[in-house]
Amino acid sequence: GSTIGILGGGQLGRMMAMSAAQLGYHTIGYAPEGDNVSGPVNDDFVTAAWDDGEALASFAARCDVVTWEFENVPVDTARAIPADKIFPGPLALETAQDRLTEKRFIEGLGGRPAAYAKVDSSLDLVAAVDRLGAPGILKTRRDGYDGKGQWRIGSSRDADALRFPDVPCVYEGFVEFDAEFSVILVRGQDGEIRFWDSTRNVHEGGILAASHFPAGNSVSEQVAPARELARKVADALKYVGVLTLEFFATHEGPIFNEMAPRVHNSGHWTIEGAATSQFENHIRAVAGLPLGDTRTTASAVEMRNIIGSEIDGAHALLKDNAAHLHDYGKAEASEGRKMGHVTRLFLDTRG
Ligand code: ATP
Ligand code: MG
Ligand code: MG
């Protein structure tokens, strides 16, 4: 069989590896010390720095194809893998790693992000708040996830009082949205694109709490233009694999929030709720196999994240006949950490 390398050591890699195993592939993980938090499904894991050229070269030599599960893999690491072996290509990482680059790229394709300004200092922030108004959110351009590296700005007073983080940022106007949703697609090596149904995503404290299908009218009316943008993004990047775009549904249509060049938390429901999961189709795409049917197979699906100590006793959730539990096997249940998820499937009961 062939071998698939996965850069990153989190739960997304674990779930990818489970799909890869089903298809007969061997997987090897790669991440720096301390980043292998979700445990591999086998013992084949390389623990080395992202810039360890020797370790990367021998990892790449052992793999037929390499992908990533973590969007902050340094671009140079991805570029160190032979270009005909890494999917998606490093350009997707480069574009999505910097919120400013990403917003400009989206505008270039005709998409609409929230009003934003480049902000590199306290003075810039005050000027941005003057120009775009408040409330808004200051975000670091790089390295944020789960709402980390973000500050709510309620007024220009807040802008004055904030101790400015010492890194490049963007300020975004706060979007009054009806709902949040994501578009998840898979693009094959031949350029074929398939979409999963969009879910309505509910965030609490900047972290995804739940995804719901059906997503409701406010979302379903806006899925078509959102997909059109997502398709342009995937084609422009010659993307191979699963790609996610997050949107705000507003009365003026879909506003682009951000993209993730990878499988996505809001797609975990596809493991049980779709004919082919995002993880399986990602593996199929990067391995050059035909893509699987993305249709939803249940009449309703709900995915809920299990955060921090909620994981204790989570097996009890299985008393619910509709529930499927996923425990990522993380050793430490620190606050705000994604420890697992539970998907509840509602099947049509006919007759
Ligand atoms: P992820 O874990 O999805 O990568 P992240 O840390 O990159 O998250 P964002 O997606 O930028 O964070 O923001 C997290 C959440 O905060 C959003 O899903 C949304 O609920 C809220 N949010 C972010 N930006 C805005 C905005 N401009 N207007 C309104 N709400 C926002
Ligand atoms: Mg993000
Ligand atoms: Mg997000």
Automatic annotation (TrEMBL):
It is an enzyme of class 6 (ligase). It catalyses: 5-amino-1-(5-phospho-beta-D-ribosyl)imidazole + hydrogencarbonate + ATP = 5-carboxyamino-1-(5-phospho-D-ribosyl)imidazole + ADP + phosphate + 2 H(+). Signal peptide: none annotated. Residues 103-287 form the ATP-grasp domain. Its EC number is 6.3.4.18. Keywords: ATP-binding, Ligase, Nucleotide-binding, Purine biosynthesis. Gene3D superfamilies: 3.40.50.20, ATP-grasp fold, A domain, ATP-grasp fold, B domain. It holds the Pfam family RS_preATP-grasp-like. GO terms for molecular function: 5-(carboxyamino)imidazole ribonucleotide synthase activity. Pathway: Purine metabolism; IMP biosynthesis via de novo pathway; 5-amino-1-(5-phospho-D-ribosyl)imidazole-4-carboxylate from 5-amino-1-(5-phospho-D-ribosyl)imidazole (N5-CAIR route): step 1/2. ATP binds at residues 99, 139, 144-150, 172-175, 180, 203, 257-258. Catalyzes the ATP-dependent conversion of 5-aminoimidazole ribonucleotide (AIR) and HCO(3)(-) to N5-carboxyaminoimidazole ribonucleotide (N5-CAIR). Catalyzes the ATP-dependent conversion of 5-aminoimidazole ribonucleotide (AIR) and HCO(3)- to N5-carboxyaminoimidazole ribonucleotide (N5-CAIR). Belongs to the PurK/PurT family. PANTHER family: PHOSPHORIBOSYLAMINOIMIDAZOLE CARBOXYLASE (PTHR11609:SF5), PURINE BIOSYNTHESIS PROTEIN 6/7, PUR6/7 (PTHR11609). Homodimer. This is N5-carboxyaminoimidazole ribonucleotide synthase.
